[in-house]
# Entry
Amino acid sequence: MKHNKPTDKNSWRHKLHEVIYEADTPMGKLFDIILLILILISVIIVMLESVKSIDLQYHRVFYVIEWIITIFFTIEYISRIITVKKPKHYIFSFYGIIDFLSTIPLYLSFILIGSNYLLTVRALRLLRVFRILKITRYIGEGNKLQKALIESRVKIFIFIFAVLIVAIIAGTLMYLIEGEDSGFNSIPVSVYWCIVTLTTVGFGDIAPVTATGQFLATVIMILGYGVIAVPTGIIGAQYVRMDREDPVQLNTQSCRNCGATGHKDGAEFCYNCGYELSPPKDIEA
Amino acid sequence: MKHNKPTDKNSWRHKLHEVIYEADTPMGKLFDIILLILILISVIIVMLESVKSIDLQYHRVFYVIEWIITIFFTIEYISRIITVKKPKHYIFSFYGIIDFLSTIPLYLSFILIGSNYLLTVRALRLLRVFRILKITRYIGEGNKLQKALIESRVKIFIFIFAVLIVAIIAGTLMYLIEGEDSGFNSIPVSVYWCIVTLTTVGFGDIAPVTATGQFLATVIMILGYGVIAVPTGIIGAQYVRMDREDPVQLNTQSCRNCGATGHKDGAEFCYNCGYELSPPKDIEA
Amino acid sequence: MKHNKPTDKNSWRHKLHEVIYEADTPMGKLFDIILLILILISVIIVMLESVKSIDLQYHRVFYVIEWIITIFFTIEYISRIITVKKPKHYIFSFYGIIDFLSTIPLYLSFILIGSNYLLTVRALRLLRVFRILKITRYIGEGNKLQKALIESRVKIFIFIFAVLIVAIIAGTLMYLIEGEDSGFNSIPVSVYWCIVTLTTVGFGDIAPVTATGQFLATVIMILGYGVIAVPTGIIGAQYVRMDREDPVQLNTQSCRNCGATGHKDGAEFCYNCGYELSPPKDIEA
Amino acid sequence: MKHNKPTDKNSWRHKLHEVIYEADTPMGKLFDIILLILILISVIIVMLESVKSIDLQYHRVFYVIEWIITIFFTIEYISRIITVKKPKHYIFSFYGIIDFLSTIPLYLSFILIGSNYLLTVRALRLLRVFRILKITRYIGEGNKLQKALIESRVKIFIFIFAVLIVAIIAGTLMYLIEGEDSGFNSIPVSVYWCIVTLTTVGFGDIAPVTATGQFLATVIMILGYGVIAVPTGIIGAQYVRMDREDPVQLNTQSCRNCGATGHKDGAEFCYNCGYELSPPKDIEA
# Structure
């Protein structure tokens, strides 16, 4: 430990940091579970509020719970800023913005009373579900899934791109063949229909009625059915490849200086800013 | 054979146990086949009873067959309890409860005459299909499929979780974009529509009508189409991994003491309670 | 060549056998291609005949072409019987029955004039598409696909079986939840809807309207979406396994005695009846 | 460099060739990006023009942009012909025809004023999306995807063929079972419905109403659900196989004589016509 910046490991800020940012300690786990439950309750309330019959009956209950959750989130947001040494890093990070946006809606509703944007602002609270991702990130499988997607992103992009080109060409053909009587009013709508068909969703709100149109639809469907194999092959091969490689063990610590996570087990300094990490012995002691 | 608890291998209880619980002997096989046929007949009758036109015509026939099956199941249920040494283990096991619930509906219909719950109680008989699983368990492939699913359960859970988060966010956006004219009446309904679309089911009872809504729907569909590859990759890799490992041969014996199944070939004692198993030589002799 | 049964390799029966049953010689190839084209024309005509507007206009043309094709097929069927030494093996084989059933409809239409079964009898001609399979069998990939499906048949059966059990349980629940107003009239219809949903087809002719029903539908859809990975994993692993094994080279000969195909390259006697096969040198000479 | 045909590497034709055909130099990259943007704008305009409300408002804007793009494409097309030494190779190549067809529509609209074919001619401009493929070809993944599809083409063809045979047989059965009341008017329509169902698209514009029809539909759906695994297994195994092989590095050069692309890194002569390629040192110098 040749690091010359002494850290007061028993200060309340240090302890608060451990509770909020790390899931290794009992308090940290408890905090994460309470947070998870509050997020879930909050998301369910936002969804139920939009159902008129339920909202009419339980409006007061929802309002009170919403206030309790907002106050908890406000305290949590401020605590996160205080305990991190470089708050700007946190505030302008992805999760920092999510945390902020999902805390303010109730405060904004005072300012925007009677506004048309109120509905949208209240829906902002649903962004809280992304916070759950922050918690699930600690589960190794979540990381692996994310990694498989990121490493296959070029392939998936090329694939989606090819699907779009096929949809544009086929959609234009359907527009020329079917005409406006059967719902193929414009090329964008035809392309929309083509994607609905290629992806095997098939709403049926628009469907070809001419024989030529149905024949082309058949070709598109078989194409989509055969082509769905491509992303599967890509991701499958990616998983097989990742299975072979030895996965590096990551722990759940978060740097007290910049908030970076995903440190290797046994790492003593943050890979991002070089700040000293709390050694695992501390936690055990 | 240093086990000091002598078991009378020719007692009727022992023989009955062999018939009911094991599929290795000719009698055991016959019993399983009769049971399978009765379950299938029973399930078909419950289904046909719900079709009014058929029920009106064949009500008496169905009633008689139902009584025969119920009596057989009652005898089988009692036999299972008698032949197992620790009946509590069986009664409160998953299959014990299934066996009980799928036997009682006809008896309950006397008590609940004219009750509204009668329909539900009679539907309980359909739980008998789970008994078929108990029989297919003896087929190695069934075990393998179950194992592949169990070992991938964390990955599949994470995946479904991610799908739900996407559906909540996209559903809320669709609710804000489409408004109530096109069927997106509330956030829960929009989220329902989103899952219908993401999973490429696409009923078409609700479909976007605005250009923005159709554009977002397109994005959701392509996402769902690309993302369906993920569980496939997971299960596929799992199967490939399981192919490499040497599968342990399991036999179809069931412990006469606690009812545990899945014993290795050649095992002499139950892995669960340590009770002596009937050695395979016995069966051949 | 120690076989003591001399075969007159220049007899017309031998030559006809080569033309009809083998695709190695130029004449055999030509015969296969003519047959393929006639089958395709025949299938297209049967399909177009069912479209009333087209049938009214071209009825005479279709009738003449149909007669030409029927006469060709009759000659071919008789030739096949004559050239094979054990005609019974051919007549009662799968392809023998297909050949017979797809030849007779036009003759039957004289006997059944004005009959209601005429439509069905004429549809029999569509069985000719199976003849195409006989030709594609010569392509190695067709064999491989068939082999992959056959070797995975137990797994696929177990899988379909599990899907059916889930559909029965979930369908019964939907029937109890939704009631008869939204189209869930009986358990069989509910189970049908469940399979439509589980397989991600989603016609939308029946769709849940209650909140509970839509919630259950969501669970079913996600289940189906996740579970579609299972057969893919099974077949994928099967293909990978088959890739490793060294495939045995099969030739396109067919035994002149019993009609069995799929002989190994270089085989001198039929694996089925022991009859001498025409050696490959003959064909080259 | 023993090639005796001296090439003037500083001529304007040589430089223009580098800009248009190669993506290695800064100018070449810039040219590709401008081309890509113009293609995307052009495609979006063609699509928006077909939406009547938008076309009415922005007709003039679209017309001007369309002229600018057409002039750019005309210059590009002529430049490509001039800089290639064997213009016929380029003009009659796939991309040559695409380039020509996507350039002429605006010129044709003068000749065909008031013609019914005008709509189709204008839709021709959408063929420009294929030009994007020419650019994405430089990305290795695009090549890999294309290669995987090409190498699996026999398998995929056989698979689609088998799907078609199943659809024809099942479609005919549905036509015989359902009759004309529920939309199964003719065999082609029934086959169309069968493909809609087998590929799990499920529009719902036609749906079986009889019990037998729904039962057969169930069988078709489960078949389609199980069989979707086959192309996935094929492509997946193909990807795994390609992963093992060492991929050959290709560069982005295009032969100045015949226009062939896909040259290996370090290749000095065109694999197609033997003409000398510009050595990579040139570009660096």
User: Anything to note?
Assistant: Chain D is about 65% helix and 0% strand. Residues 1-6, 280-285 of chain D have pLDDT under 50 and may be disordered. Chain D has two domains: 12-135, 151-245.
